[in-house]
Amino acid sequence: MHMPFTLPKLEYSYNSLEPVIDAKTMEIHHTKHHQVYIDKLNEALSKHPELEKQSVEQLLADINKIPEDIRTAVRNHGGGHLNHSLFWQILTPDAKAKEVKGKMIDEITKTFGSINKFKEQFNTAALGRFGSGWAWLVFNKGKLEITSTANQDSPLMEGKVPLLGVDVWEHAYYLKWQSNRKGYMENIWSVINWKKVNELFEQARKK
C-alpha cells in the first residue's frame, strides 16, 4: 500500500544550499507547498481506494486511465508530489556529489556538444517557460532531451523519464531572487547533485 503518501525527508538542512537557495524558501517550499500537494493527492485517491496500491509514477504514467472525477487533482497534486520529490534529491550541498562526472556527462557532451552548451539550452528552456512550470533533462527512447512542462505536469505523462528537473515556479526562488529567474537558473548549477542524476540515468538506460 502506498497510501497515504507522505512528505519525504531531506538529506540536508534547509540552510545548506545557501546562498543559492535561502533557508526560508527551502523550509516553506518543503513543509508547506510540497505538503499541500501530498494532502490533496491523498484526499483525491481516498475517493478511489482501488488506486491506492499504485505508486505516484504509475498514476501519472497512466493519467488517462485515472477516473475523470479525480484526474485533474492527480495530475496537479501527484505531479507536484513527484516533481518535488525528485527536485529535493537532485539538490545537494555535498561537494563530492556535485562533481560533474560519470557516463551521464559523456552522454550530455555527445548530445549537446558540451556541458556548458547543455546548461545554456536548459536555462533557455527554463526561462522560456511562461508562468509556472519546470525545466527538465529527460531520457526518451534511448536519447537525452531538454524539455519543459507547465504547472506540475510530469514528463512521465509523455512517456519520458525525468533525470534532472528544476522548479521555475516563483515560490521556488522568489524570496531571494524576486523576479530574477535568470539569476536563479545561472546559480542553481552550483548545487546540482550530479551523482544522483547519474544514478537516475543508469536506471533509465537499463529499463
Task: Set down the secondary structure blueprint.
Layout: H1 23-45, H2 56-61, H3 68-89, H4 103-112, H5 115-128, E1 133-140, E2 143-150, E3 161-167, H6 174-177, H7 181-188, H8 194-206
Helix pairs in contact: 1-3, 4-5
List keywords for this structure.
single chain, 207 residues, mainly alpha, Helix Hairpins, minor pseudopilin epsh fold, 2 domains, three-stranded antiparallel β-sheet, 8 helices, 3 strands, globular
Helix/strand order: HHHHHEEEHHH
- What is the number of strand segments? 3
**Low-pLDDT stretches:** none
Mean pLDDT: 94
Counting helices, strands and paired strands, the structural category is mainly alpha
The second-level CATH architecture of the largest domain is: 3-Layer(bab) Sandwich
Gyration radius over CA: 17 Å
Q: Which range does the strand content fall in?
A: 5-15%
Instruction: Summarize the amount of helix as a percent range.
Output: 40-55%
What do we call the CATH topology of the largest domain? Answer: minor pseudopilin epsh fold
Question: How many separate domains make up the residues?
Answer: 2
State the name of the first-level CATH class of the largest domain.
Alpha Beta
Q: What's the story with the biggest beta sheet?
A: 3 strands, antiparallel
What oligomeric state is this? Answer: single chain
| Shape estimate | globular
Structure description:
With 207 residues, the protein is mainly alpha-helical. The protein has 2 domains: 22-89, Orthogonal Bundle (Helix Hairpins), CATH 1.10.287; 103-206, 3-Layer(bab) Sandwich (minor pseudopilin epsh fold). Helices cover 48% and strands 11% of the residues. The chain contains 8 helices and 3 strands, in the order αααααβββααα. It has a 3-stranded antiparallel beta sheet. α1 (23-45) runs antiparallel to α3. The chain is globular and about 45 Å long. The two termini are 24 Å apart.
